[in-house]
C-alpha cells in the first residue's frame, strides 16, 4: 500500500476556535436526556408491571383520582398486580383535577409516615403532577412551595415514581414539571419535582374518558406544540419541522375521533403525541413561549376551570393580539399546519392561520368564550391578569394590561 505522507495540517482541518461560522448562528446549544422508560400500548401493565416492581422496595403508594380508576377497572388491575408481588399497598385517593398544594402535603405526610418506597400514579396529568411533588416533598424538611416559588431553589432527592396514564394531553408522563394550585395564595404554578422512572401509556385506558375531556386533552397537546413552535428562534430547525408533523397529526386524529370516537389508532396517535409534545424533543434548541399557559393557569387558580378548555378559549384570542409581531412565523404555521395557500402578504397568511385555529376550536366542540366555559361573570379578571407570570419566548411579550384586554375579549 502506498503510504502517502500527510501534510502536518490537513487542508481539511478547520480551526473551530479561531474561524467564524457561515450563515446564521441561531441554533441554540442544548443538553438532552429523558430518563422515563415508556411502555406504550395495549396490555402493557399486565405484561410488564409485575417484573418492574421487583426493582423497588416493599411499600407502594397507589395514588389515583376521584372515581374513574375504580369504575373502569384500572385500580383493580393494578392493585391485583401489587398484591401478587407481595407489596404493601398504601392507598392515596381523591386527587382532584387541578391538584392542590394541600393535597400534595396530605400525600407527602402519608408517604413519610408509611415509609413508601415507590409511588405509583394512576390517572391523568393531575394525579401524575400531584405525585411528582409528593415524591419530592416527602424527602424535604422545608416547604417545597417556599423553596421553589419564593427562593428559586430545587429538590434533588425523590421517592421513586412510576405512572400509569389513563387520560392524555398534558404530557406530564415524561417530564419533571408539575402544575399545582395553591388555593390560599390564588396561584397555580409550575413546580420542578420527580420525573417518573417508568410510564405506562395504554390507549385502551382512555376508552372510559368522557368525550369532552378526551378532546380537551388533545387540544392541550396541540397547545403545547404551538407554544413551543412560536418560541425562539424562528429560523428553520429540525424541532420545528417535527413539531409541524405533530400538530398536523393531532388535528387529523381529533377529527377522526369526532367521527369514530372509539378509534384505537387515533387514540394511540394522540397518546404518543401528548408525550412527544412535552418530553423535551420539540424544545431542543428552542426557548419556548407558554404565555397562553401562564394566562390559563392563573385563570385556573381563580376559577378551577378545565385546563384544555381554558386554553381553547384563550389561545386564538391571544394569537389575534400577537400574530402581526411575528407574521412570518405565523404565516409558516398557516401554510404548513393548516394547509393555507400563501396570500398577498405574510400578515394576511398569518391571520388566516389564526382564524383556522379559532374555527377548529368551534368544529371540535370546545368552548370559544369564558361564558361557554362556565367562568362566573363576576370573576376578577384584573386580578387574574395582574398575577400572570409572563415568559419571554415569543414574538411579543405581553404586559398585564394586554393580558387583561385579552381576558376581557375572551368573555
Ligand atoms: O378524578 P377522576 O375520577 O379520576 O376523573 C378524571 C378527571 O375528572 C378523569 N379521568 C382520568 N382518566 C379517566 C378519567 N375518566 C374516565 N376514564 C379515565 N380513564 O378525567 C378528569 C381530568 O383528569 P386530569 O388528570 O385533571 O386531566 P389532565 O390530564 O388534563 O390534567 C390536567 C392537569 O395537568 C396540568 C393542568 O394544569 C391540570 O392541573 N398540566 C400539567 C402539565 C405537566 N405536568 O407537564 C402540563 C400541562 O400544560 C398542564 O398544565
Ligand atoms: Zn397544557
Characterise this structure.
This protein has 411 residues and is α/β, with parallel strands linked by helices. The protein has 16 helices and 8 strands. Helix 8 packs antiparallel against helix 9 and helix 10 packs across helix 11. The longest helix is centred in the middle third of the chain and has 22 residues. The protein is globular and about 70 Å long. The site of zinc ion has 6 residues, from helix 7.
Helix and strand topology:
Blueprint lengths: L36 E4 L3 H10 L5 E6 L3 H4 L2 H11 L3 E5 L8 H13 L4 E6 L1 H13 L6 H7 L10 E5 L11 E6 L4 E6 L5 E4 L9 H19 L8 H22 L4 H15 L12 H13 L3 H16 L4 H12 L7 H18 L6 H4 L7 H7 L12 H11 L1
Helix pairs in contact: 1-3, 4-5, 7-8, 7-9, 7-11, 8-9, 8-12, 10-11, 10-15, 11-13, 11-16, 12-13, 15-16
The structure holds 5,6-dihydroxy-NADP and zinc ion.
Structural class: alpha/beta
Q: Give the strand order, joined by hyphens, for the main sheet.
A: 1-8-5-4-2-3
Give the helix proportion (percent range). Answer: 40-55%
Mean pLDDT comes to 94
> The biggest beta sheet, please?
6 strands, parallel
Features:
411 residues, alpha/beta, six-stranded parallel sheet, 16 helices, 8 strands, 47% helix, binds 5,6-dihydroxy-NADP, binds zinc ion
